[in-house]
Amino acid sequence: MDTSGIINQSSSGFNILLAEDNPVNQKVAMRVLNHLGYQADVVSNGQEVIKAIASKSYDLILMDIQMPEMDGLEATQYIRDLEKASQQLPIAIVAITANATHDDQYVCRKAGMNDYISKPIQIEKLKKIIQQYESLKNLKST
């Protein structure tokens, strides 16, 4: 079952976009998010990320690094350039990748990503990251 394009609204009002090209990884990530009480919109490549953020406001993007058509690094750089040009507040972007070296983390941060989580996704680490950015959103809105 392809979960691309499924639109869900988090009951918490915290909008998450999951960018992952592998259908199995999409399902695993969605199960973890649902277990934590979140839902997400799902896209399969960086170009779909760009389209999604043009039509909806997201609080967090969980971005796979290696995707077809436009990878996560290129999509992040595009988003950061777009935000600067339009003077928008930056969307929190968290890299999700199987590569867990310090060099990979550096490349992700250099591209403009805020944080980094390695595969397989650890539930507690993802929970901590989401709660961190959800808390920041709540502080900004008060």
Q: How would you sum up this structure in a few lines?
A:
By secondary structure, the protein is an alpha/beta fold. Helices cover 46% and strands 15% of the residues.
Determine the CATH superfamily.
Answer: Response regulator
Give unreliable regions as ranges.
Answer: 1-11
SSE order in H/E notation? Answer: EHEHEHEHEH
- CATH-defined fold name: Rossmann fold
CATH class placement: Alpha Beta
GO molecular function: kinase activity
Modified residues (4-aspartylphosphate): 64
Keywords: Kinase, Phosphoprotein, Transferase, Two-component regulatory system
Domain Response regulatory: 15-134
Sequence-ordered SSE layout with sheet pairings:
Layout: E1 16-19, H1 23-35, E2 41-43, H2 46-55, E3 60-64, H3 72-86, E4 92-97, H4 102-111, E5 115-118, H5 123-140
Parallel strand pairs: 1-2, 1-3, 3-4, 4-5
Helix pairs in contact: 2-3
Give descriptors for this structure.
disordered N terminus, alpha/beta, five-stranded parallel sheet, globular, Rossmann fold, 142 residues
Descriptive notes:
By secondary structure, the protein is α/β, with parallel strands linked by helices. The chain has one domain: Rossmann fold (3-Layer(aba) Sandwich), CATH 3.40.50.2300. It has helices at 23-35, 46-55, 72-86, 102-111, 123-140; strands spanning 16-19, 41-43, 60-64, 92-97, 115-118. It has a 5-stranded parallel beta sheet, sandwiched between helices. Helix 1 links the parallel strand 1 (16-19) and strand 2 (41-43). The N and C termini lie far apart (40 Å). This is Histidine kinase. Residues 15-134 form the Response regulatory domain. One of its GO terms (molecular function) is kinase activity. It comes from Pseudanabaena frigida.
